[in-house]
Amino acid sequence: MTVTSKQSGAPGPGSGSGAGGTGSGGIPAAAWRNLVVATIGFTVNFPLRIFDKNQGEKARTSLDIGRTEKLRDAAEIAALHDVDAAYATLENTLALLRPYKSEYLPEAESVRSTISFSYEHGAASLLDFLDAQKEYRTTQLSYANLVGAYLSAVNQLNFAVGQEVIP
């Protein structure tokens, strides 16, 4: 069973003690109805980024960027190392080649010509002459090998640099 305001004796909308039918608190019954009808509600939505669909792709891309930068740095260091090693090889070969050209070849030729003169005039044996000739040829062969090593080192340096540095 439902109890209405008239049955309970409590003032409700439309019942009142004053003239003209005032509601509770002195609000007229028509205004009370308008108040109930005029109520409006609204909602506000704003997205909360709890889970981003591209979150995994962004993380993978940032890892790829870091990996690529490290690979680039490693390639740069390797290229610099190649140039440094080629230049060191060139310098070492030149350090060996200079004494051959300035000292060893002239000395070997001088010894060979002296032994050759001595052999022609009977002061040296054939074995001494052949030994001097062999040493001269060995010195020339070593010089030729060093020239080949120098040219190889120049080629290696030019290749490491990427252009012809030493013609």
Explain what you see:
By secondary structure, this protein is mostly helical. Among the domains are: about 15-45, no CATH class; about 80-160. Helix content is about 70%, strand content about 0%. The chain has helices spanning about 5-10, 30-35, 55-120, 125-160. Helix 3 runs antiparallel to helix 4. The model is unreliable at about 5-10 and about 15-20 (pLDDT under 50).
What features would you highlight for this structure?
167 residues, mainly alpha, rod-shaped, disordered N terminus
Give a concise summary.
By secondary structure, the protein is an all-alpha fold. Among the domains are: 14-46, no CATH class; 82-161.
List the helices and strands and how they pair.
Elements: H1 5-8, H2 29-37, H3 55-120, H4 126-161
Helix pairs in contact: 3-4
